[in-house]
Known about the structure:
56% of the residues lie in helices and 8% in strands. By secondary structure, it is mostly helical.
Amino acid sequence: MQPSQKIIDFIKGYEALRLKAYMPTPNDVPTIGYGSTGPDIKLGMTWTQKQADDRFAADLAKFSAGVSKLLGAAPTTQGQFDALTSFAYNCGLEALKTSTLLRMHKDGEYENARLQFGRWSKQAGKTLNGLVKRRAGEAAIYRGQG
């Protein structure tokens, strides 16, 4: 499966393009482009639109491939795949790999899995409104809405 245009637009909407590296929140890591992070991202660096677009495409390919691998043969709709890809893009593949969300999905407990998205709305113990909204959107997409 590949990410749909709908989820690409969703992720870009939440990751709001920034061409200069910044700290999204005080407890976060340096970020640039469409939410790109990593050891190569340093505060003060700047990118062109092309660099941001290229990195987004590479990051999205990495996360969607990782989600596919984690899902294995588990039956998955496009909406479920998209929501899980957005989640992994934001929280990381390791977080998805060890999550109750993934376990429930693979066990076919789709409604319970959908409810798990809402549990991932905190950073450093504090609920962030942006994460609450993003997780609600992912849960709706997972269900086939939104």
